[in-house]
Design a protein that fits this description.
Layout: E1 7-12, E2 15-17, H1 28-39, E3 43-48, E4 73-75, H2 80-86, E5 94-96, H3 100-108, E6 115-118, H4 126-139, E7 145-147, H5 150-154, H6 156-162, E8 167-168, H7 174-185, E9 215-217, E10 220-221, H8 232-235, E11 240-241, H9 244-258, E12 262-265, H10 278-287, E13 293-295, H11 307-316, E14 318-326, H12 341-354, E15 361-367, H13 374-386, E16 390-395, H14 405-411, H15 434-447
Parallel strand pairs: 1-3, 1-6, 6-7, 7-8, 9-12, 12-13, 13-14, 14-15, 15-16
Antiparallel strand pairs: 2-5, 4-5, 10-11
Helix pairs in contact: 9-10, 10-11, 11-12, 13-15
């Protein structure tokens, strides 16, 4: 007879890639789902294949001052899809995360779950998802596995055919979570967040981790822009915001109860409409004299960096600022240029005046776009360096359901539609000539 409250296992799968590092990367959506389940008295377990702090680890864990650090890694064979379309690849292909035998031992020691929920992030990490689900099926062959997340949403057909999951869901999981749990376990979730009010969503269950090196924070969902290369508007069609007070209470929760010092904003729109959202939050943090650090790996919109914004960000404890510059060719209309030259220079001046040091400021520059002239990239790198900022090359990943996808398919030097792994930005799929590939290698050296 089934227990009143089911046991649900939430899984963060392995990453298969040529290179990976923990740049404040946590499965925030999965932790949010886990929090909703716990709110409904569901017994939740968490299996983190990417656990840098696995209890079976004997070597010291390397943790930078800001919470980042390297993953454990194991070299694995190149997936057949890559081998067949690329031929010989000199780069080493790697499983990043905890050792496979550790994860298998974790599963064997675990009580049998009634349902397994697996998330997915980058589309080109599809083989890591498949390997994780294969192991779950080996240990718990009769337990249903449901896959969601970014890869599942953007590459739904591929995920249904090759992931090994019993069911694939697309888009945000909250609207379908209650139906999923009732279908597979017979249990009813009575307390569900209001999709129109993000403040009703419980704080993500980050405490399920063995250690909380940093806390990801999302003050909003969605983005007011629709950049050609980005899938944000497909994944989250409308912009929704949490109240500044709700976000502040979450910061207090992790800092006061779990001694978390570093926070990474995952927002696409952190500084949009700042008088109503960001400024009240930052002023509250400053007033409370909270000794915490903030990082913006998703970049902030340059146009919104006023003198007041820069001053509040500095006083509140922002330590890593990434600007969404994309290119310093301000005359170009090839892509969605969101900032003018004078706006960029003014924003940088505000940040420097407020007290930010050179090594705290970086600007993302797109590289490897279909048909891109690398002269433009080099000029952008030089301009950014000339201003005393760190140029950060953001290598283009072709993503289905984006306006640029058709252009990427047309310009790619191999068939990127054959397998998501072929869109890996380490392969520079839309850079057609060896000369340009060599030049990108030189640009990497200039940036360093």
């Amino acid at each position: 007879m089934k227990a009143d409250s089911p046991h649900i296992l939430c899984v963060n799968p392995w990453v298969h890639d040529f290179a990976a590092f923990d740049f404040w990367a946590r499965p925030l959506g999965l932790f949010t789902i886990a929090a909703i389940l716990r709110q409904n008295r569901v017994r939740v377990s968490f299996l983190d294949c990417m656990n840098r702090f696995h209890p079976r680890k004997t070597n010291p864990v390397k943790v930078y001052w800001d919470g980042r650090g390297p993953f454990d890694k194991t070299q694995i064979p190149l997936p057949r899809a890559l081998d067949a379309h690329l031929g010989h690849v000199s780069k080493k292909f790697t499983r990043y995360g905890a050792l496979k035998e550790w994860i298998e031992q974790d599963l064997l020691a675990m009580d049998r779950p009634d349902l397994i929920l697996v998330t997915s992030l980058m589309t080109y990490w599809a083989t890591g998802v498949a390997e994780t689900i294969a192991l779950l099926k080996k240990i718990f062959p009769d337990v249903p596995v449901v896959l969601g997340g970014i890869y599942a949403t953007l590459c739904e057909t591929h995920a249904r055919k090759y992931s090994g999951a019993d069911q694939v869901i697309t888009g945000p999981a909250e609207p379908v979570l209650a139906d999923l749990v009732e279908t597979y376990t017979g249990f009813t979730l009575n307390e569900m967040p209001d999709p129109a009010d993000l403040d009703t969503t419980p704080f993500a269950a980050l405490d399920l981790q063995d250690a909380i090196a940093y806390a990801p924070i999302l003050t909003s969902r969605g983005c007011p822009f629709s950049c050609e290369y980005c899938a944000s508007s497909f994944l989250e069609p409308r912009l929704r915001r949490r109240s500044p007070e709700n976000v502040f209470q979450e910061l207090c929760h992790w800092h006061n109860n779990f001694q978390v010092k570093n926070f990474a904003f995952y927002d696409d729109a952190l500084l949009i409409n700042p008088e109503r959202y960001a400024f009240p939050l930052l002023e509250r943090i400053i007033d409370e004299k909270m000794d915490i650090f903030f990082h913006t790996p998703n970049a902030v919109h340059i146009k919104e960096i006023s003198a007041k914004a820069a001053d509040l960000m500095f006083k509140a404890g922002f330590k890593t600022i990434r600007l969404g510059l994309e290119t310093a060719d301000f005359s170009s209309h090839r892509h969605d240029i969101k900032v003018k030259r004078n706006e960029f220079f003014t924003a940088v001046d505000h940040l420097r005046t407020s007290g930010f040091a050179k090594d705290q400021l970086g600007a993302y520059l797109l590289c490897g776009l279909p048909g891109q002239n690398l002269d433009e990239v080099e000029a952008s790198v030089n301009l950014v360096k000339g201003l005393g900022l760190t140029p950060v090359l953001a290598y283009y990943t072709p993503i289905p359901h984006t306006p640029m996808w058709a252009d990427a398919v047309k310009n790619a030097r191999f068939d990127i539609t054959a397998h998501p792994a072929l869109t890996n930005n380490s392969l520079f799929p839309c850079v057609r000539s060896q000369q340009d590939l060599d030049r990108i290698s030189q640009l990497k050296k200039i940036v360093k």
